[in-house]
Design goal:
UspA; elongated; Universal_stress_UspA; 290 residues; 2 domains; single chain; alpha/beta; Nucleotide-binding universal stress protein, UspA family; Rossmann-like_a/b/a_fold; 10-stranded mixed β-sheet
C-alpha cells in the first residue's frame, strides 16, 4: 500500500498554508496527497442521502472545503495526485485515523498564541501528542519555496538519540539539498545548580568537549549514509529551546522528537517542543519515537 502525505483542511488560512506545504512535500517525496476534512454531522442528520446539500447550508459548506482545496492544489501543482475525503467523525479521531498509515500529517498552526490554538486548539494538540507518525505544523503566511531551501534544524536529545528522528531530519535535508543544523542542549551536573557560571572554566571546557564529542559520535553513522550532506553540529550549554528558536530564524523546517510519557495523565508534548512551537515561525515536524 502506497503511503500518502495527509493534510487536514478546515477552510482556514492556516489549513490553506498547510495544504500548500503538504503538496510541495508530497512532490519532494514522490507521493500522493490526501486532504482530510472532519465533520461531525448534527444529531438530526445521519449523513445519509435523505436530504439535499442545499437544504443544509452547514453540510453544503463542509462538503465544499475539501473539494475546493483539491481543485486549488491541482491547478497549482498539475503533476500532483490529490484526493479529498470528508470523514464523519470528531476532528482529532479522524486525523489520527488518517495518519495511521500515512507518511506524515500536516496541520495548520495559529502562530500568535502557540500550540494551544493550533487547528481548533486542543484538537491539534491531541493529534500531535497521540500520532504514531510524524506531524508537521505550518503557520499561516508560510511561503513555500522551490529552492534554495533554508537549513533543516534538528533538536537532538543525546540521552536516547532516536533513529526515527535522525532519519527524518537527514532525509528532509537531503531531499531539499539543505544544510542540516543539529542542536544539542546540555547542562552541567546538578551539583552546580544548572548554572554555567558556577563551573570552573577548565572544567566547563572539558564538559563542553565531552558533549561535542558525544554529538559527533551520534552523527557519525548518519554522515556515512548521507556523505553529500552539509552538517553543522552544535552542542550548546543551557536549554535547547532558545538555541533552536535562534537557529530556526531562517530555517525551512525544524525537527523535534516526541517520546511517550506514560506517567503523565494523557499524552503530552515536552517543554522544549511546546516552547519551539510557540515561538518558531518555520514549519515544525514532531516525530514520535520510543
Amino acid at each position: 500500500m502506497t503511503r500518502t502525505v495527509v493534510a487536514g483542511v478546515d477552510g482556514s488560512r492556516e489549513s490553506v498554508a498547510a495544504a500548500d506545504w503538504a503538496a510541495r512535500e508530497a512532490l519532494l517525496r514522490g507521493l500522493p496527497l490526501r486532504l482530510v476534512h472532519a465533520w461531525e454531522w448534527p444529531p438530526y442528520d445521519d449523513g445519509s442521502a435523505s436530504g439535499t446539500a442545499s437544504a443544509d447550508p452547514q453540510r453544503h459548506w463542509a462538503e465544499r472545503i475539501p473539494r475546493e482545496a483539491r481543485s486549488a492544489l491541482l491547478a497549482r501543482y498539475p503533476g500532483l495526485t490529490v484526493t479529498a475525503d470528508q470523514i464523519a467523525a470528531a476532528p482529532a479521531a479522524a486525523l489520527l485515523s488518517a495518519v495511521a498509515d500515512a507518511e506524515l500529517l500536516v496541520l495548520g498552526s495559529h502562530g500568535r498564541s502557540g500550540v494551544e490554538h493550533l487547528l481548533a486548539g486542543s484538537v491539534a494538540l491531541a493529534v500531535v501528542a497521540r500520532a504514531t507518525r510524524p506531524v508537521v505544523l505550518v503557520r499561516a503566511g508560510t511561503t513555500a519555496k522551490d529552492g534554495p531551501y533554508g537549513d533543516v534544524v534538528l533538536g537532538l536529545d543525546l540521552v536516547r538519540p532516536s533513529e526515527a528522528v535522525l532519519g527524518f531530519a537527514f532525509d528532509a535535508a537531503a531531499r531539499r539539498g539543505a544544510v542540516l543544523h543539529v542542536v544539542h542542549g546540555w547542562n552541567p551536573p546538578s551539583a552546580y545548580g544548572y548554572a554555567p557560571a558556577a563551573v570552573a572554566p577548565d572544567l566547563g571546557a572539558e564538559m563542553a568537549g565531552y558533549e561535542s564529542d558525544a554529538l559527533a559520535r551520534a552523527l557519525a553513522p548518519w554522515r556515512e549514509k548521507f556523505p553529500e550532506l552539509d552538517i553543522v553540529p552544535e552542542a550548546v550549554i543551557g536549554s535547547a529551546a532558545g538555541h533552536l528558536v535562534e537557529a530556526a530564524s531562517d530555517a525551512s523546517l525544524v525537527v523535534l522528537g516526541r517520546r511517550p510519557r506514560p506517567i503523565a495523565p494523557g499524552p503530552r508534548i515536552g517543554s522544549v517542543s511546546r516552547a519551539v512551537l510557540h515561538r518558531v515561525t518555520a514549519p515544525v515536524a514532531v516525530v514520535p519515537h520510543e
